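Co-fold these.
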Amino acid sequence: MAEILFELAGISKSYPGVMALDDVSLRVCRGEVLGLIGENGAGKSTLMRVLGGVVAPSKGVIRIGGTEHARMTVNEATQAGIAFVHQELNLFENLDVAANVFIGREKLVGGPLKLVDSAEMRARVTPLLERLGADFTPDTLVENLSIAERQMVEIAKALSIDARVIIMDEPTSSLTISETERLLEVIADLKAHGISVIYISHRLGEITTCADRVMVLRDGRTVGELARNELSHAAMIRLMIGRDLKALHTPPKRPSQPGGCDIVGFVTSAFPDRQIDLSVRHGEILGLAGLVGAGRTSLARAAFGIDPLLGGEIRIDNAPIAIASPRDAIRQGIYLLPEDRKKSGLVLELPIRENVTLASLLNYARMWLVSGPAERKVAKEQVRRLSIKVPSIDMEAVTLSGGNQQKVVLGKWLSMQPRMMFFDEPTRGVDVGAKSEIYALMRELADQGVAIVMISSDMEEVIGVSDRIAVMHEGSVSGVLEREQFSEYNVLQLAIGQAPDTVEAAAP
Amino acid sequence: MNKKDLGLVLLLVVISAVTGAINPAFLSLVNLLNMANLIGLFGVFALGEGLVIITGGIDLSLGSMFALLGVVFIDLLTTYEVPWPLALLAVLLGGLALGGIQGFLVTRLKMQPFIVTLCGLLIYRGAARYYTSDSTRGFGYGDEAATLSSIASGNVAGLPNTFILLIILALVLGVLLHRSVYGRWLYAVGKNEEAARFSGISTNIVIATAYIISGGLAGISTVLFVFYTNSVSPSSFGNFYELYAIAAAVLGGCSLRGGEGSILGIVLGTALLQVLQNLVNILGIPNSLNFAVMGTVILIGVLADHQLQARRRRKMALAGVVRARPRSTAERQQGAAARNADALPARTGDQA
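Predicted complex below.
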């Protein structure tokens, strides 16, 4: 066994009323990738905060290099070589890469004048970026970088303080498939240089690829540890939720009906020179795959009336529908579950009740005056139907977990009559349990005859949930796969604009 | 009534009691009715300002609007001898139109409310002064608008009509804001415009309507002020009044970030401001300290409110009700956290 870098032993952390961590032990060896998985609320984040010195444990010891600490300060953790790459990146967009890497530790010149030595900082950052294979320069402004590139900046920052352990919390949740692969390569390289990585992710495929060892947390306890050769989706999921998830795909109750929604010759402002043609039948879930930036979200936004449509039209059962605003779309029964639920899906500081009825309020009003009882009834119905776990419908949406927030957004639409629904990354940041509930709900809606388009970058989800998959590449649909053609390989091929393996790319 | 409003009532009572104890004249009927009149005068347009602030905007143009609409109003009555109902209608429509223009610039042309209404402030004032060649306009000795005058500055059983009008408008707007679909949309737009848009709310119309209502109320206020002063000198009429309205709204619980505030709060805020002004006079505090007293009270009030809210949030977090720290606060502190913690986060997300 390699040298143990540090060890947490018997760590407990209790908040009033909650046992966030209960006797958790963890060790990290030099140059190993430790996967850390668990549903939301399992205690992963608290554990990492203990490690980072942000939170003091109630019990337990932290051993680093032979010395024992009852708790660590942030500075001690930094000195011990522990660095974070944040889920929501903490970078200053208005500064350049080098300034971000050295933020708070700027190289100075001019003695008492304390001027910032930009040249020196850039010179020091260049080799780090080269090592990470980044193709931007240290003087690039962070606001001009993609999310994947920003992540590289964070990693460069960790390397610049000689980190021995880098903690990555959901690093790929916003990355494209190829960027994810790139990140996994970087992790392998870090490992080769003797740097350890703690990799937290909901995406089990990535964990399987990169982890040497996986630790599973549930309800604040360690429920299992898997060695590299024991890693399998089924084993990990079983430990995470304590039961086997049945195969994701539930077939539709009946073959999809004739008729449906046709998107004909759509031209969106993101790709003014491309046309999109796509059809979704009533009762089917159409997965919409592709790299981030392939125009999937633009398609959904245009269909929902958020962005102007430069050309083309939507037809439902062959009747063309005019959509100039989200209001028109909603009136036609076309709904969108947006990608960013906190920004576009919810008014976080309003109660659940008001969020659920926000889009349909006029239905519960007489002479424009809201009827309290009618509104409460609808909100309660949705909370029950979607099993949103809340003590009261008057709680602010901000207090809910990711999965429950997503369900509130869903409740907003399901309180009306959908005909076509776009789900844009419906399970991003949602825990495994809520995920399968959302899938079941999508299936239920489809069985009621709703045409569903599910935009997703999660390969397991695309393949597991869809009845057909349409793949987009640079602003247009590059192919549609039927269920028997489903494979990661085929989806990826189409996503990068190549022909799929077996059959000819079916025309949309 | 929410806690904030209750706190304001309490503050109002305590200040009045203390002032009354020091100088009983404060609580005399004459003084109280005089204050009621002023509260009515300043409350009407504060209501409109409050609506605009709830959308996350601001209206700086109100005082200048009074000057411009005021000189036009007097000119219509005296020079052109227009019947007063028509003149009244013209001023109301003028206010609605100016509000509409500002609303259009803010929503359709995506200009910042501060800039749009600051330019309004400068333009209307300039227009009023140019129109009158900077000379004061007043009523002659005729009774151009005796009826309207007696309505605007009269009273019912001693209670000033301005105050009664404020109560009526507050009730109407209270229903609009707190009971109607439009009110719900207004708060939603103020708190998160994008999510409101994604819910099919025509956010531009909702916001523009707030500016239009504010303009209309400014029209009403113009008429009230004209009959209160009986003349308009275009360079000083209504100066700083928009700041009174903003102060009243903020004191009444509106947040300049939008999405917060209540009609009752705005009325109470206006009342508190007028009580403070009156108190400066009654207690013999030098009049020059007027603004300073007002500023101090607002500062302390808003500060206390922040502290109380922070405490409430801490309590809720401790009780485990809030499992995650409210994101908005967390995000606001993110920058600071990054600086303090260097490479370490205050949170790693995903804590729910």
